[in-house]
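Mods, move this if it's the wrong board.
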Amino acid sequence: MKLGLSAFVAVLTLLIAPIASAADHNFAKWLVELRQEAKELGISDRILDAALGNAAPIKRVIELDRRQPEFTMTFDEYLSKIASPTRARIAAKMLVEHDEILTKVSKKYGVQKRYIVTFWGVETNFGQYLGRSMCHMLWQHWPLMAAEAPISVENC
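Not the wrong board. C-alpha cells:
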C-alpha cells in the first residue's frame, strides 16, 4: 500500500506517542526504529527519505518546547490562563458557529469536535495569534518533520 506525504505525516503523528524516552534511546536509534515501523505500515523509502532525510535534533526547538506553559506553570496557573472561563465561552460559540466544518473534520479523522476546538483555542486563541508560536517558527525556519522528530524523542 502506497501512502502520500500527508498520509505519512498523519501516521507519523500516531507513531510518535509510544516511543521510548531520549534517556533510553539516542536519536539515531529512535529514527531507525521509526523508519522500520513506518515501512511496516507501507510507507516507501522515498517518502521516508523526503520526510526524515535531514532529521536531526535542533537545540533551539527543544529549548522552546521545554518553555511551553504545560511545563512551566502550576496546574492552577494553567487553568486560569490557558483554560479560562472566557476561552470556554468562546469555544462553545465556535462549536456552534463552525459546526459544519468541524463535523466533517471530526468524521474524517475520528477526533471529537470539542477536542478540535479546544486545541484551536489553546494553540491559537481561535486564530488570534499565529506568528509567534513555536509551530510557526518551525514552519518558517526549519523543515517541519526534521524539527518535530527531536521533540518527539525528547518528550517521550
